[in-house]
Design goal:
The protein has about 550 residues and is mostly helical. The protein is built from 23 helices and 2 strands.
Length: about 550
Amino acid sequence: MQWSLGQLFIANLNSASNDSQGDVAGLVTILIILLLVATVVALVTQQLRVPYVTGLVLAGLPITELLSRQIGLDPSLVLNLFLPILIFEAGINTDVSRLRSTFKPIALLAGPGAVLSSAIIAVLLKLGLGLDWIPALLVGVILANTDTVSMIAAFKEISVPSRLSTIVEGETLFNDAAALVSFNLILSVYSTGSLTIFEGIQQLLIVAVGGSLVGLILGYLSIPIFIRLNDPLSSLLLTVAVALGTFQIGQFLGVSGAVAVVVAGLIFGNLGLSRSTSASNRVTLLSFWEYAGFGVNTFVFLLIGIEIDPLTLWRTLPAVLLAVLAYQIGRVITVYPLLAGLRWVDRPIPLRWQHVLFLGNIKGSLSMALALSIPLTLPGREGLIALVYGSVLISLVGQGLSLPWLVKRLKLSHFSESRQQIEELQLQLIASKAAQDELDTLLKSGVLPKAVYEEMRASYQARVATSERILRDLFNQRSIKLPTLDGKLNQLDAIRRRLLLAEKGAVNDALRKRILSEERVQAYVKNLNEQLLGLEDD
């Protein structure tokens, strides 16, 4: 008996039999084992400096033989629960202004690029493996998809230029939605037997535009409710309902639920969060979604490794290698020629960045979920699933391990000392001014006496003045070292906590907008967290 991932989380509450109780106990045991394995993987990957998701997949390979019960990846759960969570989390952390500035390369890669790559893969698989057109096109769409989770996880561990990071995250975000739409369109051709080009374009526009409208409406409707909710826990429930509900409503209306969730996440993250009056609420909400995305990623990639049978992979290795070669050829023909022509309408993409975009087409959970969604009536279905599984494994391990090496080799993660110093000063300015804004709010609300307000605001103003002065000198090409600015905690712990949370929210927002790098923000936030813990201990 094989257990799906859904059964790990949803017990049969209507059954009170001893067998049912034993099943639940067994599922809880398996869940605990997976959590312990993930914890060990996190420790090992940190020591070896390899991507976390790659370690999860490798760790999952031998687990199936060790467990008394088989567990598997449920495509329905991935598409209806995990995918909306991951897309929404990526959407609320994506800055629309930066997305707008890189819209042309993102649209080129996620639109015509994805279609061209799918077609190239399908042709090569038909010629190389003798597949019929429908199976070849389905596999082409599946393997042309770049996994959002894998790329965002990889870019969190390595520093790259902010524009490159935005292009990659934007492409993968919209690529997921495009893959789902294209996959369903091919299934329509398979079920109906025919579909004209005009009908295909019409259906594609209805699904995509309809999904965007659903996301716009639900995203905007959720903002007034969010503003009125002063309780951070209630705000969390609202965002979860928006993420999951938007996907289901989109699917029910016959439009793209994935497109709807992308749009709703972008609206909520860029319009809703900024209107929250409490910095604490914003930090709590973003921290929750960061944890939700991390937890989903952990289980998905661990179960990808469990789902793959090494023996089946070995038997189908020649076909798998051909599929890997096919999607790499498709990516080469997509990335380099299309981006070479981009210079006529937009800022050119450096060749070194194009190398990262080529190698960064890592496959992941959506590819496997789509493979499992192939109709049972399609001839050769098991062989297609094995082909996709093998390609995903090779992609996660091979490209996942080589991508950080390539970035370092191309020296994309290298920042000059002056750039690091400027970024540190920008961080000080953003955090200090956010704390000053919070102080103004406290004064206006009557919480803070004016004398205390002036004293605390002056300490922040000193930091602002020092940072601005050094930044001015740096821009005038003078070399002045950054002094150490240590603030002292006082007895107004509640006020200090709000100020620290305001700083934390501001620097996290700057990270989301790619103003600051992940490494520098993490160090600053770690210091803020230590100060917050110190306040709680006192």
